[in-house]
Amino acid sequence: MTDTSSSPSPSAGGTGSDARPGATPTKRGLFSQLELDARLLGMVGAFVLVCIAFNVVTGGQFLTPRNIFNLTIQTVSVAIMATGMVFVIVTRHIDLSVGSLLATCSAVMAMTQTLVTPEWLGLGLNHPLTAPITIVVGIAAGLLIGAFHGWLVGYLSIPAFIVTLGGLLVWRNVAWYLTNGQTIGPLDSTFLKLGGIGGTLGETWSWIVGIIAVLATLFALWQARRAKIAHDFPVKPVWAEVLMGVVFTGMILAFVAILNAYQVPSRRLERAFEAQGLTMPEGYTAGYGMPISVLVLIAVAVVMTLIARRTRLGRYIFATGGNPDAAELSGINTRLLTVKVFAIMGVLCALAGMVASARLSFHSNDIGTLDELRVIAAAVIGGTALSGGIGTIYGAILGALIMQSLQSGMAMVGVDAPLQNIVVGAVLVFAVLIDIIYRKRLGAK
Amino acid sequence: MADNIDRSGTPLVEMRDICVSFGGIHAVDHVSVDLYPGEVVGLLGHNGAGKSTLIKVLSGAYQADSGDIYVDGERATIANPRDARKYNIETIYQTLALADNLDASSNLFLGREITTPLGFVNDAAMEAETRKIMGRLNPNFRKFADPVSALSGGQRQSVAIARAVYFNARILIMDEPTAALGPQETKMVAELIQELRKDGIGIFLISHDIHDVMDLCDRVSVMKNGELVGTELVGDVTDDDILGMIILGKKPARAA
Ligand SMILES: Nc1ncnc2c1ncn2[C@@H]1O[C@H](COP(=O)(O)OP(=O)(O)O)[C@@H](O)[C@H]1O
Ligand SMILES: [Mg+2]
Question: Which parts of the chain are coiled coil (chain B) (predicted)?
Answer without folding.
Answer: none
